[in-house]
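Practice record 12: protein with V47.
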Amino acid sequence: MVQPVPGNRLFFVMDKRIEQAGLTGIHEKVRAGQRLDGDDAVRLYRCSDILAVGYLANLVRERINGDRAYFIYNQHINYSNICTNLCSFCAFGRKKGDALAYEMSVDEVREKVRARLDEPIVEIHMVGGIHPDKPFDYYLDLLRAIKEVRPEVHIQAFTCVEIAHLAALQGSTPEETLTVLRQAGLGSLPGGGAEVFSPRIREQTCKDKLPGDQWLEVAKTAHRLGLNTNATMLYGHLETIEERVEHLLALRQAQDETGGFLAFIPLAFHPRNTELSGLTGPTGMDDLKNIAVARLILDNFPHIKAYWVMIGPKLAQLALSFGADDMDGTVKEEVITHMAGAETDQAIGSTTLIELIREAGRVPVERTTLYETIAVHGVEAATR
Ligand code: V47
């Protein structure tokens, strides 16, 4: 980790560069540990000097997480893509009866877990669409079946959108629903479904989806029950920079209230096979900028993920110097982004993750969902 030594040439050069980029005021706030505001965030987004923005984000990243870069050995299960929301940015969700619609039985999900019992999987990440007629018991049975086969695994499942749907299905509250799901084995919630909170964007892209303020309410309810959640933002489609900033500030406000968010994951929009396929999606600059700005604005979030599935392992590796401290996990097998044209693999080996992190000059830390350390991979050869 680079320590700020007064008079050090690197700091002199960076000070000059940051001044030329018009970011001196933000630099002073970052150095003093002061909170940045919405105008700062817009300025950072509009700045074309990615090295200056990344340098500032890296100061915060190293203050919070030192040289550590996390990854997890996990498995993704998308039990069904049948969905009533049919958001215009999504290629995964399908109407019942569509040629590409699918749903897994509880036994099929059980088999998916059983098939990988010889691997050191510590987390099962499970989400699906908003199904029109699966009963609540199906979701409880999924959790119970996974726990039956793999009792020690942490199940991170169901977005806030799905929780609101299940509560409505039950005629019950999100609080009661989460309590019952937890009893059946739910460990935490992933960050999906947040999209961009802006009502304008939701109206244009996902008007049937749970509104942003209610997404936040479900997340805060989970936190108050002691269930951690993640948060995402889908960027690079129709949203403005100001709408991204509002999204980040709303998350920061919620985190001030509950402290229950573990990680923020910016999700790079993939246009293929979606109703927005005429758009090109974000660039590499945009990918790095979203990670860096998130690190700077979300000062109360312990972790920022560079999700290799969406931005590619190479850029995710670089992102470890631009604010990110986590590359997510082995994943196998990603479906949501691949249906929208992702060209990354559907899984990555933990050895590869360790090597990517080491080469970036960081210390690879294999973690649990709740960021407990399983192994610190030093310089010895990776074993998995
Ligand atoms: O909610 C949908 C997004 C999310 C597209 O919590 C798309 O650790 C890009 O939330 N291009 C699901 N993104 C994935 C997700 C996630 C992934 C990894 C880790 C975590 C975590 C959460 O994917 C959806 C939606 O926002 N999405 N379509 C698309 N075309």
